[in-house]
């Protein structure tokens, strides 16, 4: 029985979703009210509607961004940058109630950003917004849907990644002695010969320098990877820094950018990354395996590495033997024409 009389009152005690489901209890003065309530609870459960829905989430967007910052941003290598991006986005929307944000609000905001920024940058910003709500949902901190979930990134034309030619690589080695500091020269050479990011080499510790390899930890993908090195590079690394310090190098990226831009007129946003692109490009052009390159560069997805695939000497070579003109020529030869 789900309806019982105790004294002058009628009590409803029902589990509309079965024994393992939520229990609903209520007290009434008449049996008719108790019966109507029981029927209501059962019908609402059948319609998948909660009898006692949670109160509307009235937290501001800024509150949820702070939750994300405390609970997740600090675990990301780019957490501080993404946090600043989200704070600016929150101000652009005038810090609304988070649950009230709709896709049309984000589309309007994106259009405004496109007026002053490149599409690739706007895509990065939108992805940060998506990730914010995704994390909040996975952490069960919000129940409302992700307003950015179905907004697709803007398609942009793929840009050829610049890299140094063989002649420019030779010029680079000849100019290492002119670098503003021995540290910068050795870091730059290490990036060029291992494909590592400048920040990864800057952070390397003595315990991760081996005679035949370097071990990169705390990388962008959070995975440790090992890259072989030449004996000559090992000697250079051993001659750097203070052995009593934990790290070989200090932070010299800004000075390095200025020096590299004096050597070449580099595109905006490239600077030290030109060395990583150069390693990857020459590795593939020399016939290196694309899967091996993925492991060397530390890409979490092969799509990132495939951007260099077109440089492979055998890339799409079938075009020369399987195009219609060649196939027709072969047919004529077989037919004796």
Provide a quick synopsis of the model.
The chain has 337 residues and is mainly alpha-helical.
Structure description:
By secondary structure, the protein is mainly α. The chain folds into three domains: 3-46, no CATH class; 61-138, Orthogonal Bundle (DNA polymerase, domain 1), CATH 1.10.150; 166-311, hpI Integrase, Chain A (Orthogonal Bundle), CATH 1.10.443. Helices cover 47% and strands 7% of the residues. The chain contains 15 helices and five strands. It has helices at residues 31-46, 61-71, 79-92, 103-114, 119-138, 166-174, 182-194, 198-202, 231-238, 253-263, 273-285, 290-297, 302-305, 319-322, 324-335; strands at residues 3-6, 9-14, 24-28, 213-216, 225-228. The strands form two sheets. A three-stranded antiparallel beta sheet has the order 1-2-3, with helices on one face. The chain has a two-stranded antiparallel ribbon with strand order 4-5. Helix 2 (61-71) runs antiparallel to helix 3. The model has no long low-confidence stretch (mean pLDDT 88).
From the 3D coordinates, which CATH architecture of the largest domain would you assign?
Answer: Orthogonal Bundle
CATH homolog superfamily of the largest domain: Intergrase catalytic core
Could you give a short account of the major beta sheet?
Answer: 3 strands, antiparallel
Major sheet: order of its strands? 1-2-3
How many beta-strand runs?
Answer: 5
Please indicate the percent range of residues in DSSP E strands (runs of 2 or more): 5-15%
- Global structural class: mainly alpha
Elements, N to C (H/E): EEEHHHHHHHHEEHHHHHHH
Question: End-to-end distance, in Å?
Answer: 94 Å
């Amino acid at each position: 029985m789900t309806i019982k009389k105790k004294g002058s009152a009628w009590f409803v005690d029902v589990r509309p979703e079965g024994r393992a489901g939520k229990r609903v209890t209520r007290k009434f003065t008449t049996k008719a009210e108790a019966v109507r309530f029981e029927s209501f609870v059962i019908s609402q459960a059948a319609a998948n509607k909660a009898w006692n829905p949670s109160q509307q989430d009235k937290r501001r967007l800024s509150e949820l961004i702070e939750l994300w910052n405390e609970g997740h941003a600090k675990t990301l290598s780019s957490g501080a940058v993404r946090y600043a991006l989200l704070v600016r986005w929150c101000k652009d929307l005038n810090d609304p109630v988070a649950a009230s944000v709709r896709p049309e609000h984000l589309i309007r905001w994106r259009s405004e950003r496109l007026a002053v920024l490149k599409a690739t940058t706007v895509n990065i910003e939108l992805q940060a917004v998506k990730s914010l709500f995704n994390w909040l949902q996975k952490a069960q901190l919000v129940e409302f849907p992700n307003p950015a979930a179905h907004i697709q990134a803007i398609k942009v034309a793929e840009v050829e990644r610049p890299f140094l030619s063989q002649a420019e690589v030779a010029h680079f080695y000849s100019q290492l002695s002119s670098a503003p500091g021995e540290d910068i020269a050795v870091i730059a050479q290490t990036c060029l010969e291992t494909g590592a990011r400048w920040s990864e080499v800057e952070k390397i510790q003595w315990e991760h320098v081996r005679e035949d390899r370097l071990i990169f930890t705390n990388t962008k993908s959070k995975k440790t990877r090992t890259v072989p090195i030449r004996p000559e590079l090992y000697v250079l690394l051993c001659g750097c820094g203070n052995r009593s310090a934990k790290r070989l190098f200090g932070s010299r990226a800004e000075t390095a950018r200025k020096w590299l831009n004096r050597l070449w007129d580099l595109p905006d946003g490239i600077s030290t990354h030109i060395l990583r692109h150069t390693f990857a490009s020459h590795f593939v052009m020399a016939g290196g395996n694309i899967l091996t390159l993925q492991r060397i560069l530390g890409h979490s997805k092969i799509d990132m590495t495939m951007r260099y695939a077109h440089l492979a000497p055998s890339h799409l070579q079938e075009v020369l033997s399987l195009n219609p003109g060649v196939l027709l020529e072969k047919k004529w030869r077989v037919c004796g024409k």
